[in-house]
Every structure is written in structure tokens, then in C-alpha cells.
Structures
1.
Amino acid sequence: MVDVPPRRPRRTLRSVGDGELRLHHRVVHGYRRAYRMAGEGPALVLIHGIGDSSDTWGELIPDLARTHTVIAPDLLGHGASDKPRADYSVAAYANGVRDLLTTLDIESATLVGHSLGGGVAMQFAYQFPERTERLILVSAGGVGGEVNPVLRAVSLPGAHLMLQTLRLPGMRLQVGLFLRLMRLLDTDLGQDAPELLTLVDALPDATSRSAFIRTLRAVVDWRGQAVTMLDRCYLTEGMPTMLLWGDRDSVVPVRHAYGAHKAMPGSRLEIFEGAGHFPFHSDPARFLALVEEFTSTTSPADWSRDHWRELLRAGRPGTAVGQPDTAQNRALERDLREASERSAT
């Protein structure tokens, strides 16, 4: 007989006022950090991608806030948050999210991370598993080495000058025409034309461009993505995890979704057909339904120090630890070491 988990009580819906959706600010470690916070219920943290801001979740927050306390920060160096000459690594961002949540009296949460934010969410779960209830990774970075060639180019010396040209008179129009052409030609890049044009607008001055480049170089170099979460994905065993991806993602290829799904025990994979790098914009209704269903039908991760110790001692499945010293096992270990060269910490 199959055990059927008991049905959870239906969550009470509440309306969300416009005042709840405005930007708030907190000073943490001397830096002003912007965030949006709305609703009541279990905490749901929305982490945006590189060059973006909490505004990317704007149309989704009212619905999510009917059943959750939604916190959507502007990461340091992004949006309305300060943009100092600081550490913009994935690990530093995870620390920043933790500290902001602490000031807001949020002890644990379900994390929803998009693109770079997906890498931040995974890093948060690695650094603070006891504060992570679930993971929802949307077109997440930090899986494979591949990334859009434009991002690789921006990581090179001289990127400041290249981005500065985007502010020249007429350049925004030219970029817009190019993206419109890509959309008319039905290319994968064209699927995200409106969002990509918004990212151009998000870099209005030298300070914003500098923060963008520092963030990008922390995760991308001329060869591609420079950090990975694959070496520690096995640690998500027992943590409800869902992967959401567009099958026409031109920034982080959809094959990364299948790789992450395979590496994360018990994870769930949902592919948005015809969607690009922003599936939650392409089909917001489906995105909302999946998040609501996932959070209401799964129990928060029950973290324990003993379980964490057992996972670490057992190591990543497929490693040659404890195996005979054969040529095949040595080759396997070499492949895993090459993947781990891109570890965040």
C-alpha cells in the first residue's frame, strides 16, 4: 500500500495593497539595501539575476503575497541598493541575503532564484541549510560552463568602454532595433528582447556599470561560467527542490537544467516550452501555479547536523573515494576535479 501524505489545510488568501509593494530600505554593514516586502504567511524570498532588480518580480508579488510573506531584495550593486566597491561574489551575496532576512526577523524561507539569483540561492542553501526550507531555481547560473557569448565578452578588459557606448545618443534605439529583429527572426535571443533592453536601461552611470562588471567577473570569464554548484548538489538531498527553465534560453542553455536535475536527488524539473531566460515573464500564470502547488504540497526541509555530516562523509555520488585505484576510476576522479575547479568556495 502506498502511503498518501495528509492533505494540508487550504491557505487563506488575502488582498495586497499597493503600499506593500513599494521599496523599503535597510542599512546593513553601512550599505543601504533596497527590498520589497508584502503579504503574510510562510516566507518566500525572490532573488533576481545580474543587472536586474526586485522590479522583475513586480507583477508576481501581489499573487504570491496572498499566501506568503514575500521578500524581494535588490542585491548590492543592483537596483536601488548601494553600489560600493565591494565583494560581489556569490558567497557574499548569500551572506547579504541572510543578514537582510535576519534584520527582518525571517529565520527560514523558501528561496526562489533566477539566473545569478539561482546561484545565490544554491549558495545560501549550502552555507545556511538550517535556514533554507525549499529551493526553486529558475534558469539558474552555476551549473555548466556555457553562457551567452555577450556575457563572456563583457568580462574581458575594456568592458567599461563597451558598456559606456550603450549610453551614446541613438545606441538604445539601435540595440532595440537589433533585438526586435532577433525576435522577428524567431531566434532564442529574441525571446527575451524586452528584458534585455531593460537591462541596458539599468546601467545609466559609471557606478552602475562598475558594479555590473564586478558582479559578472565574479562568476564569468572569457571561457564561460567560472563557478559551479554541481560539486555540492548532493547536499540538497532531503530539501524540496524545483527547477524551472525555458527551452529556448539563450543565456543559460536548457541542457543545464537536465544536468542540475540529475545532480540534485529528488528534484523536480519543469520546462517552459517556447520560453527564454525569463520563463516567469513568458508564462506568469503557470509560474505562479507551480510555486503555489510546490510550496503547499511539500514540507520544509528538516535539517539536522547529523544528516549533514553523513552526506559530507559519504561524498558526492560517483566519486572514486574508497574505490579501487583503476584507470577508469582515476579518469572519473579527474573529470569531477575539472568540474570542481569552478567551485564558488
2.
Amino acid sequence: MTSTITRSFVAALALSATVAPALAQEVNIYSSRHYDSDQPLFDEFTSRTGITVNRIEAKADELIARMEAEGENSPADVLLTVDVGRVGRAEDAGLLQPFESEMIRDRIPPHLRDPENMWFGVSQRARIIFYAKDRVETPPRSYEALAEPEWKGKVCIRSSSNIYNQSLMASLIEVHGEEAAREWAAGIVGNMARAPQGGDTDQLRGILSGECDVAVSNHYYFLRGYEQDVEGLTDGIENIGFVWPNQSGRGTHVNLSTAAKAVHAPNPENAEKLLEFFTSDFAQHHFAGQNNEYPAVSGVPLDEDTARLGIFIPDTTTNTAVYGDNAKAAQTIFNEVSWD
């Protein structure tokens, strides 16, 4: 009897030793990227490492709230967001932890990662100026120029509650200071063709409908008009021109899709393996190609649609981390100048 129990106990220990590592070979990602096409990316990671990727998708603010509610019991290992402002909120809430990776430092330029190693960019999204080719002979060449009197009643741009505009304002605060940024915001409000409404695609539609002559949008909303049939955009898209802003100065403002390690990551080593994988040529090409974005790693080829916009000079002097640092000041300015 005793020997039978002993043998059973030894067998159970052997089984647990076999099962435990298998259970540990997983990583949990909370992602605000709503692309089913991301699955091949995770399948490739699993193929290379044997680590299964479990994915939960929701809007970034919902994921952040969920992580706060879960506390130390949160299963999240990696947080993937589509804006620096949002990952900044997660950082401020104490939901992230720093990580050291020579590979990430070597692959991702300093201005595209947090100085404290709390997050880094996996792809770039440029905020650029569009204009009506048939009505605008000399379009504005900088963000600052959009606030000049000649564009009064001609500008379409989103609400101040939009994270893209908040990050743009945060960068202007960093470059010019709060007073100058406030003057710029007041100038934009004075130049609006209509009260802010809709998303970036709606600003582009405003050009084609004749409501405005110039508009501000992330670059990939424009490219979607080529890639698919977008109502109110695709049919007239050849009548829209674009400008890479500030090419003779600091460069074009870019925002990021970002990746970070969760503070209570139950699979910390696997999390870091996944984060490093995100900087591989395979992952970089995938991240950029799925949404017509620009890779964060230099030298990775552009997808065909993105390539139609060409190469531009990005703002490499302003660390993207300031988008979160200056977020409150940006919203204060928006409120002061009545930017809805």
C-alpha cells in the first residue's frame, strides 16, 4: 500500500513538472489594435518561441480601467495601444513597469521610446496637412501656418477631445512654450470652417464637399481611400493634395502605436520576448502594413500603399514621451480658447 502511494506521489510530481512549464509557455496581451489580421503576427511569434499568445481587445481606456480594477491579479503581460497619450495614462496610473532590452535600445530610436524604458513605439503615424488641389495653389507648409489669417474659415480639424490633437498640442507646447501654443490654438479656432465634428476621415470629406480648403488628419485615413471604397472620399481622392509639415524645420509630428510591459505581468520573461519580437523586421513590416503606418525601425520596407506618400523628415528632436507629460496643459489650453 505504502509503495503504491509513493509511486503515485512520485508520478504526480513528474506530471506536475511536465505540465507546469507547458502552462507557463503563454503570454497575455491587452490590445487596443482592432485588427483581426494581427493574428498571423502572433502565430509567427508562437512558431518561433513555442509561446502561446492570448489576446484581449478593447478600447485603450477600457483596458486601462480593467487593469486598474484587476490590480495585482491582472493577467495582462503586455499592453498595446495606438497613441502615446494613452500609454502615458497607463504609466501615470502605475500600470506599467520598466524593462531593459539591448535589442529594443538598438532597434528603436531614442525619440520613439520612453526615457525610463516604460514603453516604446512599434509603428509611426504622421499627422499631416491636406488641401483641395483645385482651390489651394500654395498650401500651408507647417502646423504653425494653419493659424495664419489667410486660412480664416478654411480649416477642418477634429475636436480637442481627440487624442491625436491633444498629442499634437503637447508637442507644440514642448517646442514653443505654453503661451505660443495658446496663441496657435486660438488662431486655429478662428480659422475653423465649421465646428469640430467627426473623425479624421470626415475632415478629408470636408475638403471634397467644399466645406473647407485644408484639413488635418493622420496619414493613413487618406490612404484608406485608395485601399478600399470609403464613402465620400474614394471617388474624389485625386482632388486632395497633401503636405508633410515642417520639413524645413523640426520635421513632421508623429504619434505611435506603443507596446509596454504590465506592472503585474504573470509571465514577465515571455512578455519581454514578445516585446523584443515586436522590433523584428517581420513584426515591423506587419505593424506598419496592416494600417498603412510607418515602421519604427529604420530600413524596413514600406507597404505599397504607404509608399505612395513617400519618405518624410519626422520630428526626431521632440521625444514622444512629452505627449503624455504635457497632456494636462494641452487640454487646459484647448478649454481656454474654446476649442470644442
3.
Amino acid sequence: MDRAFGDPRLAEMRQAAQGGAERWPVLRAHLAAADGDEDLTFLVEGVGDIAQVEQWTREVADADPGDTLALLVSGARHVEWAWQARGRASGAHVSAEQWKVFRERLLVAEEQLYEVAEREPSWAAPWYFLQVSGRGLGVGQEAAERRFEAVCRRAPGHVAAHRQHLQQLCAKWGGSQERMHAFARRSALAAPEGSGLGQLVAQAHLEDWMEAGGDPDSTVLHAPHVVRALHEAGARSVHHPAFARRGDWAVGINTFAMAFALAGEDAAARAMFRMVRKAPTEMPWRYMDGRSPAVPFLAWRARVGA
């Protein structure tokens, strides 16, 4: 699984991030040259899962307290580090110690990210990561809405932020499936053709499948209105000539691949698997196998004949 999504900049950054504070100039150069808010978010998030980043970013910040990019990376890392401590299991299966560490790390993240937002009020990236930390801290739907809107004021159409907000609107996070679907459809239809926001429709139906038990042989997505919605969303986004392979573009293709496969639309699923080739992404395949998401990707690719 290529966690750099085929992006040579992120691949170099991920390698440099393992080298400690002395390699910070490599990361910083790429971050400073990011092509807008979505690209900056993509690059920062791309090093958030690498161990020890939370340690050497402290060294960088101590050496240069005014380096806001270092503070942003640290805040983003603390968000991911918190979720690593919690694990991906349902809340009932998270221990008291895990909850304690989870909350402690998220509170550090919030302090740092709010500091970044204050220093650089035009940046969308800190507000994106505050969406994720806020969900973990249970800030509630109104506060979550404000954080999402803060991203969109600075970067309308921010695909990753919309994905995070859809999660917030799910029933499992205090929302409802009805609100989730309304948001997905509204966002997809309001976006320009070729936008990655079409994937929200597929993501929402995968959430329904999970709510129904997540059975690979379930026919819950076979309903005609679901199939129709998936094809309409795909035509407006990943199948449109204006669709661009930038950032974490492969997440959207994989989301459609899994949704079409579970909907029994083998031909449509094959097209998605062929488009993404050998680039599985953690989401959505971890819904089938949290430890090895590539396993269901390969199995379903073979199952639909791609």
C-alpha cells in the first residue's frame, strides 16, 4: 500500500520524516511550496502516521518557536498519534487507559492547531485537523459544523474536509444517516463536474452497509435507488473528463470500487479497479479488514474480474 499515493514529494517527505529534526528542511521546503490549502493538508497528513514525528517536531519548535509549519505538523501528528492509541475498535472495546492517552494527545493537538489558526488565519489546514480532533473529543454537532465551515470559508470544495464532515454526520458519531445522505448528495451536486466530492455519495452508502452489519455478502446496496445514485455520482466525478488525479485521488476511486462491488455492479467496479490499478487505500478497505486493507482490495478485484 503506497501511503504517498504515488506523489514523489510526499514519498520524499515520508522518508525524511523518519530521519528526525535534521531532515526538517526537506519537509519544510515541500510544505512551503504546497499548491494551496488542499495540497498543504494532504502533505501534512501524509507524514502524520510516522513514529517519532511528535518528538522531533518539539525539537524544531524549541529551536525556532516561530516556525508555524512545524507547529502544524506537530498538531496533525498528535491527532493521528491519539487515534493510534485509541485504536479503531468501537468505544465499548477501548480501555480506560486508552481513553486517557487518547484525550491527552488530542488536547495537545487542539492547543497547537488553534495556535496555528491564530498565527495564520487564512490557512484551512489547522481547521481540517481540528475537525478530526473535535470528533474524538466529542465537541458536538454544532461545534463540528463550525470547524467544517471554517475550512470551507478558506478552501471551498476541500474534499478531505468533506469526507471528515460526512463521518461526523453519521449516526455512529451522533448524527443520523438521513443527514449524512443529504449532505453527501447536496455536496456532490453543488460541486463542479469532475470534482472529487462525488465520492461522498459512495462513502455514505458504505456507511449504511456498515450500519447494517458490514456483511460482504449483504445485498443492502443492491437496491435500485442506491445503484442509480452511485452511477450518477460516478458520472459527475471520477468518470468525468475533468476529474484530476491529485493528492489522495485514489481514495475516491477505491470508495467507488468497493461500493459498486458491494452493489453487485461488477462492470462498474471493474472500471474502478482498472482506473486505480495497484493502488489500494486504507479507506474504505479497512472496513473489511482493519489490519490488512489490501487483502479485501485484492479479493474483490479478483471477484469482479478486474
